[in-house]
Amino acid sequence: MNLHAPKGIDVENWFIECYRKHKGHPLKILIGLYKGNYNKFFLAVLFFFIKHAPVWVLPIVTANIINDITSGSPDTIQNIIIQAIIMVALVALNVPMNYLYTRYKSLATRYAETGLRKALVRKLQQLSISYHKETQSGRLQSKIMRDVEAVETLSTQMFLSILNIALNIGVALFVTVSKSLIVFLFFLLTTPLAAATMVFFRNIMKKRNTEFRKEMEETSARVMEMVELIPVTRAHALEEEEVTKMSGQLFAVAEKGYKLDVIQALFGSVGWAIFQIFQVVCLGFTGFLALKGSVGPGDITLYQSYFATIVSQVSSLMSLIPVIAKGVESVNSIGEVLLEEDIECNDGKEALDSVEGEFDFKNVRFAYNNTDKPVLHELNLHVDKGQTIALVGESGAGKSTILNLVIGFNFATDGVVTIDGHDIRDIDLRSYRKHLAVVPQTSILFSGTIRDNITYGIDDVDEDTLNKVVDAANLRDLIDSLPDGLDTVVGEHGGKLSGGQRQRVSIARALMRNPKVIVLDEATSALDSISEKLIQEALNNLTKDRTTFIVAHRLSTIKGADRIAVIADGHCVEYGTYDELMELKGEFYQMKSIQS
Fold first, then answer.
1. Which residue windows are transmembrane per the record (predicted)?
2. Which DSSP symbol is given to 343?
3. Which domains does the chain have, with CATH numbers?
4. Residue 359 has pLDDT above 90, yes or no
5. Is residue 464 exposed (0-12), middle (13-18) or buried (19+ Cβ within 10 Å)?
6. Around 436, how many Cα atoms within 13 Å sit in the side-chain half-sphere?
7. What is the DSSP letter of 427?
8. What per-residue confidence (pLDDT) applies to 338?
9. DSSP labels, 196-225
10. Of the ranges 1-10, 470-479, 520-529, which one carries the lowest mean pLDDT score?
11. Per-residue pLDDT band at 535 (split at 50, 70, 90)
12. Distance, CA of 24 to chain centre
């Protein structure tokens, strides 16, 4: 047995399609998630039935023994021995049956749990950058971990616990009706009351669970933000302010949790009290029937045991309502991601086998969805292959937006952006980005080794190529100074390296891709002069014979650019070489004069 998907089923796409097909019907979604594993659930139920047989048979055996003893039957000893052997055999079966039950149940539920997380991970990779900018990462983390776990719990409760409850109640009622119709009718009186109790609490339980889930997502996001800001908080002695701010959020979660706990406790206690009263009534009722001779003395124990079974099972069903409500809410929460339509769609678009690096911006206008004011308007630029173009201008002028259009994170609202004559809207961006490298202002490293970070996404890297890249990125002195060299672990977010070192690792990663197009977003803005010099040399190696877009605030770093575009109010107001713009004595000249 294994956790692989059943043959013929594309798990991740099936899960997304399942959500889309059964939107608004959590139970149908839940059933659909187990496509290909229904046989495992059937076997789990079968083994569960066998392992629980002693619970159903023991009351019958007990009643028979008591009746035999009280009736003075000559075969009493023989009957006791036979029925004891039956019970021992059933109890012995419990161990292997429990193993088989757990095995098949776990295979099915863990398969769905893993499949759901994979579907979420894949969908997050497909969603647009705009979506990720607008959605807190803590909320997404909560959906992948907490909500999927709640769905797995819901599966167990829905398909196994509820079936167990149904089997227990069914067996108890079947045996009862076969022995006494009067007692059976008495048992049935408890069912409407149980149903009425559950219906009464169901809606309010759903509301409380929704409120609590949303507050937990908000808290998860706030905690992640707080952890990332700890260096800033500590540097400015703002620890108490941060604790106070987080305390307010934690108390909000506690309040929602308290309301949920109270309604759950009230729900459980009311149901328990009602059924305990009926159990006492059952004892008196069957005792009265035994005095009249309608039932045997041993049957009192039988009916009392079965009534207790029914009571406990209905109580269990009631206690499952909060779990089910929480699970249903989590099913809906996961659907918020899986059904999100703001995705980057590349299917069916033209794949580029090669990229030369010639770009054209023709009458480009761009505005974000939540505003009517355009960031770019009437932008016209031409960039030849192998050319380095620097974008300069005040903050908010639209420089980073242009880079996002080059990468394909955003598309022009009007106008067109072309790469080698292809409209960027019409190409498979994945094929284009294989020829693209991005060096952001803030280096993004993961907690592996320097080697892992440099060769990220590239297989079969030979040492000669890697060493050439290390030299070109001015990393040789750093690598030689480390005990483990390239295999040194950089820590979370590269925290064991300085800012300049992290940036040079990012440049080495870009060089390893041997890109045709490079995007540099203020790659040296936050560095000291020595680190800047090392990185500038590395950048010169990186940009040679490659189409390069540079955003820079330090105008001295772009003197060697082939062209400089001065961006103001969303369009290009000056365009030329460094010397041409200085001779023009326009906006670029004024900006350079201020920095001098």
1. 41-60, 80-101, 154-175, 181-201, 265-291
2. B
3. 11-338 (1.20.1560.10), 359-595 (3.40.50.300)
4. yes
5. exposed
6. 20
7. B
8. 82
9. HHHHHHHHHHHHHHHHHHHHHHHHHHHHHH
10. 1-10
11. low
12. 20
Instruction: Evaluate whether 446 touches 495 at the Cβ level (below 8 Å).
Output: no
What DSSP line would sit under 69-101, residue for residue?
HHHT-TTHHHHHHHHHHHHHHHHHHHHHHHHHH
What are the contacts of 573-577 at 24+ separation with CB within 8 A? 575/381
Give CA–CA dist 32/158, Å, rounded. Answer: 13
CA distances in angstroms from 425 to 105, 295, 403, listed in the order given: 47, 82, 15
For the segment 251-270, the average pLDDT, to the nearest whole number, is 80
**Coil, helix or strand for 372?**
coil
Cα separation, 557 vs 525, in Å, equals 10
| 3-state SS assignment for residue 520 | strand
Dist. CA 453–CA 490, nearest whole Å: 9
| Integer Cα distance of 344 and 356 in angstroms | 23
Residue with tokens 């839940």, as numbered in its chain: 30
pLDDT at 203: 60
pLDDT of residue 531: 56
Type of residue found at 498: S
Q: Give CA 557 to chain center in angstroms.
A: 42
- Taking the C-alpha atoms of residue 76 and residue 562, their distance in angstroms, rounded to an integer, is 106
For residue 359, how many other CB atoms are within 10 A of its CB? 22
pTM to 2 decimal places: 0.63
Angle at 521 between CA 518 and CA 526, to 5 degrees: 135
